[in-house]
Design brief:
This protein is mainly beta. Among the domains are: about 100 residues, Multidrug-efflux Transporter Regulator, Chain: A, Domain 2, CATH 1.10.1660; about 300 residues, Neuraminidase. The protein is about 5% helix and about 45% strand. It has five helices and 53 strands. The strands form 13 sheets. It has a seven-stranded antiparallel sheet. Strand 17 and strand 18 form a beta hairpin. Helix 1 packs across helix 2. The protein is globular, with a radius of gyration of 25 Å. About 50% of the residues are buried.
């Protein structure tokens, strides 16, 4: 966290108001170019320009420090501009490559909707693009769209089914995708030009047709390990790579004889990319992600793309989420050297997909910040308008608040600052907590005197130490080199609620910070438990649980379908005694991220419909703390228009004080871009 604090201990702002350029004209003047030229540089060359989410979508701004860094990275190529003169018309030929100097691959913007956009896929000839999008309408459900490169887009689907993992078949006549709704997750196929989808594999996700079009690789939901290879006509099927657990995606190698998966070989290991022969040969560890973590970069669990001799994937860097390319040896299929970063940073580049020498990907605005809204203390209902608490590109998450509601603790990751931060909600003053890069996942104690902070050590094993520090003097003590999880919430000044990780199944435990003992609190053989929050009176715990195996039913009749949406539950806390699954009380069957009002009379949560990735609605139910039951029907407490909660990212559960709700919100709308790697 070097550079995070100034000499007075307050959070230093590397990008203050004096650093901002607040219009296209200001950016153009700063660069000594015309407006059309800098707009083209943003579109094609990655000039870091940001949009104001709460104003009209044409409003932009940039930071001088980011523009300077971009200009330096492009200096050699810009110096060789064909004409060398900018007349302001935007007609210059743009940067050209200098002999012997590597340049960033040329980018072309394909869609222009500034929409919530996901899962692009390219046809085999690179001429057709399919993707999931809300079409740029805040009130629209995401659907599958199809467009010819350079042409207009047509919407192919209707309905509230959540669609993901799009891919073309080898002959480009059909689209394969995963569809999820209250009935579970299944792999579907539909005609490319539109038509009725039909189930291809039930209780499955991530289906990918082989390069020859004869087989389908997919991930079964009802098995804890391995992937399946099936014929497209359903006549034959078998499971491979049964030694690999918690497979998050599967893609085909160009030779059609291997697949690449992200998975664990052991529950205690970090996830890695593995190459798996489809003929039951030896599973090989690529080591790609291990080397990436050693460089201080981290992958995100979204599918990669294997294009020719390279695997292209997204990586979290201090400059944002960027695309990276890893060369693969043609004969040994092993990684060659370190991964190369392809995009400049400053935005969120994700969902890469490749064909015909091109990679298409989604570039979204990296605007993730803290916001708050006032609440009526008598009703707990939000009132007034959203207020921005932080500003700038980067990552904020893992919110916790002291019992008096005065001190907010959260994690900050920006280009110039990384680590836990304490914010006085009355004065808005901020201070960094610990001067080191390896401390994240913070939680502040009820008194506000202590902060627990989790780490993640780079290595093949998933080592998660936890430290406890004093807010008064900053002294730290380590509770263990591997506590098996990360902090979520303090129950009192001694006992800490932590989230533990296993193969597909997260669980919740109690950690005694004095003696180091752990007590299993919430676990399930077929459900992953996340986002646990204890009520203000310490008697109840709310959490969400997602089915990872066979469905089950509670005594009250709520059923969790195969691979369905997470459901929110509450249960009574009885000291360190484990909570039985039969004692879970359902609150909402399609929701997650529960959090309590300051007096515990309301339980807020985020519904998963229509999207589990991003949420713009907060619902709530009244809670009877004596009976331990939600009362009355659920109701909408808040609807967000422009800003959304990035629920797919860890640590984005909101918090409530007696006078406000605090959120992690962002404008993650973006468009599909095309990169030429040929």
């Amino acid at each position: 966290m070097k550079g995070l604090e100034n000499s007075q201990g307050t959070l230093a702002s590397a990008t203050g108001p004096e650093d901002r350029l607040d219009s296209w004209k200001a950016i153009a003047v700063y660069l000594g170019r015309g407006v059309r030229t800098v707009q083209r540089w943003e579109r094609e060359e990655g000039l870091p320009v940001h949009r104001l989410a709460h104003e009209k979508r044409g409003s932009v701004y940039a930071y001088r420090t980011e523009v300077d860094a971009w200009w330096e990275s492009r200096r050699l190529s810009l110096a060789n501009n064909v004409s060398g003169v900018d007349d302001g018309s935007g007609s210059n030929a743009g940067p050209v490559a200098v002999a012997g100097v590597a340049t960033t691959p040329r980018l072309e913007r394909i869609t222009w909707r500034s929409a919530a956009t996901f899962w692009p896929t390219l046809s085999s000839d690179g001429r057709l693009l399919a993707y999931v999008s809300d079409g740029g309408r805040d009130d629209a459900l995401p659907q599958i769209w199809l467009q010819q490169i350079g042409g207009s887009a047509a919407c192919l689907t209707t309905g509230a089914c959540e669609r993901s993992h799009l891919s073309f078949t080898a002959d480009d006549t059909r689209l394969v995708f995963t569809g999820a709704d209250a009935g579970g997750s299944h792999v579907y196929v539909m005609p490319t030009l539109g038509g009725e989808p039909r189930p291809l594999k039930r209780a499955a996700i991530g289906g990918r047709p082989s390069p020859d079009g004869k087989r389908l690789a997919y991930i079964p939901i009802d098995e804890p390990s391995g992937i399946r290879i099936a014929s497209m006509d359903g006549s034959a099927e078998r499971t491979i790579a049964q030694s690999l657990m918690d497979v998050s995606f599967v893609i085909w190698a160009p030779d059609g004889k291997h697949v690449l998966v992200q998975a664990h070989s052991d529950p205690a290991d970090e996830p890695e990319y593995w190459i798996v022969p489809t003929d039951d040969g030896e599973v090989k560890n690529t080591g790609i992600l291990q080397r990436l973590r050693q460089r201080g970069l981290f992958p995100i669990t979204l599918p990669a793309s294997w294009l020719g001799d390279s695997v292209v994937f997204s990586a979290i860097t201090p400059e944002g989420v960027r695309l990276a390319r890893q060369l693969i040896h043609a004969e040994t299929l092993q990684a060659k050297g370190d991964a190369e970063l392809l995009t400049q940073g400053g935005e969120l580049d994700c969902f890469p997909t490749g064909n015909a020498g091109h990679v298409a990907f989604v570039r979204a605005h990296m605007d993730q910040n803290l916001w708050s809204i006032a609440v009526d203390p008598a009703t707990g209902m939000p009132c007034g308008v959203l207020r921005r608490l932080t500003r700038g590109p980067g990552y904020v998450a893992h919110l916790s608040v002291s019992r008096d509601g005065r001190t907010l603790c959260y994690f900050l990751a920006r280009r110039t600052a990384t680590g836990p931060v304490l914010r006085n909600l009355e004065t808005d003053a901020e201070t960094a907590f610990v001067p080191a890069d390896e401390y994240g996942f913070p939680a502040i104690s009820p008194s506000g005197d202590l902060v627990a902070s989790g780490g993640r050590l780079a290595g093949p094993r998933a080592m998660r130490p936890i430290h406890v520090g004093s807010v008064a003097d900053g002294t730290l003590r380590k509770l263990g080199d591997d506590c098996g999880g990360r902090p979520r919430q303090w129950l009192d000044e001694r006992v800490l609620l932590i989230e533990r990780f296993g193969t597909r199944l997260n669980s919740i435990a109690l950690l005694d910070t004095a003696g180091g003992e752990q007590y299993e609190l919430l676990s399930s053989p077929d459900h992953s438990i996340s986002n646990a929050r204890v009520s203000p009176d310490g008697r109840w715990i709310a959490f969400d649980a997602t089915s990872r195996g066979v469905g089950w039913a509670t005594a009250s009749g709520i059923t969790a379908p195969l691979g369905g949406h997470p459901a929110v539950f509450v249960a009574r806390l009885r000291g360190t005694d484990p909570i039985r699954q039969d004692d879970w009380v359902p609150v909402d069957r399609s929701a997650s991220h529960p959090f309590w009002s300051a007096d515990g009379s309301l339980l807020y949560y985020l519904p998963t419909v229509p999207s589990t990735e991003f949420r713009n609605v907060v619902r709530a139910r009244h809670f009877d703390s004596m009976a331990g039951l939600p009362s009355g029907d659920s109701f909408t407490a808040l609807t967000l228009s422009e800003m959304i909660v990035p629920a797919s990212m860890t640590g984005t559960t909101p918090v409530a004080t007696s006078d406000r709700l605090v959120f992690v919100l962002g404008d993650f709308r973006g468009d599909v871009w095309l990169m030429d790697l040929s």
